[in-house]
Amino acid sequence: MKEIKHLINGEFVGSASGKMFDDINPATGQVIARVHEGGKAEIDAAVSAARAALKGPWGTMPLDQRMALLRQVAEGIQARAEEFAQAESADNGMPITLARTAAVPRGSANFTQFAEHFKYVATETWEMDGALNYSLRRPLGVIGIISPWNFPLLLSTWKIAPALASGNTVVMKPSEETPMTALLTAEVINEILPPGVFNVVQGYGADSAGAALSEHPDVDGITFTGETTTGKTIMRAAADGLKKLSFELGGKNPNIVFADADLEEALTTTLRSSFANQGEVCLCGSRIYVQRPIFDEFVAGLVAKVKANVKVGDPSDPSSTMGSLVSREHFQRVMSFIESARADGATFKCGGKVAEDLPDHLAEGVFIEPTVITGLGPDCKAQRQEIFGPVVSITPFDTEEEALALANDTRYGLGATVWTQNLGTAHRMSAGLEAGIIWVNTWFLRDLRTPFGGMKNSGIGREGGVHSLEFYSELKNICIKL
Ligand code: NAD
Q1: Pick the catalytic residue: 177, 282, 434, 470?
Q2: Ligand 1 atom at minimum distance from 176 CA
Q3: Apex CA 140: angle with CA 134 and CA 142, to 5°?
Q4: d(CA 225, CA 205)
Q5: Between 20 and 30 A from 24 (CA), which of 31, 128, 252, 255?
Q6: For 44-64, what is each residue's pLDDT tens digit?
């Protein structure tokens, strides 16, 4: 059985407590690895290794050399791309094709992107009468990264790469549900960077490694992706040390389709924005609002596309377009939202149940059919809370003002999508929507130089391009009297 250890100060080590937990493939229910469960002792050791590494060769390394090493990390991931893809799919239930075409290439691209971008960011100078101000950037210090299970490699490297490119050292705590690609990332980085620069402690969140990292007095900043409620807990834990925080949290994103939209394009993309990675994407558009003249046609069109294109099946089969949910616990949570929608009188246009007719080896897996519902009122639980599964609801609207009011009637503010051919509508909606990222006539089209993050309860701060540099570095002003 594969064993997953921590990476601390350049060594792969087990836990002092000797405690371990199972890593389960959610599609088969099989235990695929045993994971060393880290706690305070491992976090303490990793943080002191990271602190010491700041003073080692890494701390004084010329920028070009540091960036060259990060490009080697990108190449190291590419060189083991298939191994990464298999691990991600087995851990998460993600279709292997999605892992091969999106998760792993983006995991590698995160390193190339930040190895390039930060080389070209200038600092400012201000001339005074008889004095000169200029600013210098310095690394923030030791960065704690706490990452989720839904796109483990993509989302962790989105933070590891800029943290390292800015000259920091890192202690990462990946999700207990998906420890595999964190181990592979550790293996790749450990061959390239000095010991202690990048450390991984496996384990749980609350009362465990995650909590120990968020409250550690020698950690300078915490960057976290996960649930809004977890973000609040981490914020409280980090308050004592006044740690700098960057949070990418939950969403309940609106997908608004006007009657003048290119319907075929809107439907094709909505199929993806609803069910990509079983709906376990923070940016999925789970609240769909459709203008009344095309409402019936849109609902029928989406259901037809689900039936024609979505194949729920073994994640390791390249022809599967939807895999398994991440865990039995999460599956039960999603099913309880489906039951609450049913109790609230929703109409199920398709799905709403456990996927059937799967091969015997998936009998212990947790698969849900892609689910499209209508008739949910704005205050129903399934319409208000983040489900994070393959469930979307469609609601009609009449006017632009009504669409905007419905879309913004949420405590979240991560993403939004607008479908229209009218430039005025596109601009007015984009200006009015309370979300950190707005797509017009597309979805999930990402330029890694742009600001990424959420408003309201969906996050604090922005990462991406120079915005990542803002978080991962300290800027100091020097004033010289001439
Ligand atoms: P989660 O909050 O349950 O867990 C995320 C991480 O936090 C895990 O590593 C977990 O072990 C750790 N953790 C849990 N409790 C902790 C505590 N008390 N102290 C410290 N660490 C703790 O989230 P999840 O279920 O892994 O991920 C799904 C959530 O992530 C969804 O809400 C989704 O919307 C969100 N998400 C947001 C973005 C974004 O960019 N905004 C991207 C992906 C996922």
Answers
A1: 282
A2: 11
A3: 160
A4: 12
A5: 252
A6: 999 999 999 999 999 999 999
